[in-house]
Each structure stands twice: as structure tokens, then as C-alpha cells.
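Example: Cystathionine beta-synthase/cysteine synthase A.
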Amino acid sequence: MDTPALTGGRAHPGPTWQRLGRLSRDQLERLVGRVGATPVAAVTVTVDGRRCEVLLKLEGHNPGGSVKDRTALSLVRGLETAGTLHPGDTLVESTSGNLGVALAFIARARGYRFHAVVDPHVTAENLSTLRELGALVDVVDSADENGNYLRARLRRVRELCAADPRYVWTDQYGSAHNPLAHYATTAPELDAQAGGRLQAVVVAVSTGGTLAGIGRYFRERRPGVRIVAVDVAGSVALAGRPAPRLLTGIGSSQRSRFATDDLYDETVFVSELTAVATVATVRERTGIRIGGSGGAALAAAAVVARDHGLSRVACVCPDDGRKYEGSLFNDRWLREHGLADWSGTLPFTDLTRSPSVPAVVR
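Written out as C-alpha cells, the predicted fold is:
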């Protein structure tokens, strides 16, 4: 990832996720040990004449290219510890892409099979990686009234588990090991990298596990830090109104079971157009490539900084923007989906690299 101004974490040679399918089981097992310890990049946004430093937690530096590596590892370890998962079993999960890639490479490293249930919104990049890793892939095509596929994916997962007792559902939507991953690793890493000096942490929501884990950690350790949930229009993850959505990795067509009101202070809804505009601006101004959920989180960080007069916040950027070369960074795709005209959509007037940390290019 082209990431200037990095601090903390390890400089993983990458992007590793693009070559996972060519690695041996032993090599994949070594990569499992490298999940986490992701770097932070500092940028400065200017909003209404005020500057705010935003620390971007770059989860795309995980071996599988996203924060879902942490979630997947925690889910699998939880099943192993409980004695639910045995050699030769098949893990199965409903996924928009990133968790599927994470589970596929961890399953292969551990000697399990993996069956991914995806939908037509999965990116070509993630779909290719899943297949290279030997995952079985089901693409459901039965959308709900808003063009979303989660109910169909979950229905297919249940059918597979009912048909074969060797199928084990990791259940990212309900397992306590999802938020535990971020309480135990993501949040303390970010806290340490920020030197304990944060006014707010901004987190995009899908299942809500990342938000819940980070929120719980900061509530216990640094209760003065404002926790901000970010969602997109059309998502009901945080009780919004259902509508068609395009972006993957943020939003959901069902309510989060993890994101309870006591774990965060406010919700910022960001339009998909604003998220895309922010992603493009970050790449143009800094060379950093983040996905749509990271763009939404950064846009929300600017809003929060403006509304509360903050000068130092952090946001989690869940994945590597190179997973979206065929969509978010493809002019034809943007035009086809009405996302090419960004005029007036950015919540900040300027964005630059922060001079407060030395530049490290990966």
C-alpha cells in the first residue's frame, strides 16, 4: 500500500492478500501470526478554517487486506477452544468479501475447508482471491425489496449447515468473538499508537463488532474519548431506513447485535457519494488507498471535528483500496452508478499529509 506518514505497527511487505492463493500451508500459517500490528497514517483535514489531525488506522496492511483478519482469527480460535471445530470440518460464512478472504486463508492454514456465501456485490478482487485459496463459493442472486442480499446469504448458510454436520458456521453476526477481537487488539494498538492522546475514535459499522470492541475498550480505559459510529444511507445496522446500497464493507440490512447505545456517543450517516469522493481525495493528496468504509469514516471524522471543535481524532480504515480497482477507482463503474460527480460533497476544504510523523513509504 502506498502509505506515507506511517507510524507504529510493522512494515508488512505487500500487498500480501494479492498472492495468498500462491502460498503454501506453512507460509499461510506464518501469516496468521502476523495478523494485527497495523500502522497508522496521519493526515490533516481543514474544516471551516480549523485544522484537525486524523490518524488513519490502516487495516489494509493485514495479510488478508482488511480488519476482518482479526475478526476471522478470533472466530476460529473461539470455535477451536470450545471444541466445536475439528480437523476436516468446513467453515461456512455469509460475507460481502473481506471476511471471506480472511477465513479462507486462515482455514487453509489450519487444515479446514471453507465455504463462502457471497452475492453479486462482491468485488472481483475478493472473489478471485477466494477461489485462488480453494474456497467453495456460492453466489446468491435473490435480493430483497431494497436490492440487498443478506437474508438470502444467511438462508443459504443455514441450508448448508442443516445438510452436512461437518459444516460449522462462524457467525460473525452473533459470536462474542467478533467484538472481542477489537477489544483485545485493535483498540489497544490504536490507543498506544496515538500516545493516549485522542479526543474521538470514528468507526464504520457493518456487523458492529469493530465498533463494539473499540467502544468497550475506550469506555473502560479512556472514558473521555468520544466514540462515533458511521453508517451509510440505506443501512439499518444502526436503525436507519432500508434502501438500496452499493458499497461493501459498511452498512447492513439487519440491525447490529453488538452496537448497543452504551458503547458509542453518536452516529454519523454518510452518503455513498461522499465516501467515494473522500476515498479519491485521499488517494490524490496522499497516495494512500483506502476502501469505501474508510472513506466514510474519514468524512465522518471531519464532521465530528467540526461539530465538537476537536483537533485530534482517529478513524479505522477497514481495508486496502486496491480491493476496489474495478469499482471505486474505476471511472466507468462510477459513471454507471451515478458516483462520478463529487462537486460539493466533501465535508472538508483541504486534506494534507500530517508533518507530525515521519514519512515511511511501503
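The CA atoms of residues 119 and 139 lie 5 Å apart.
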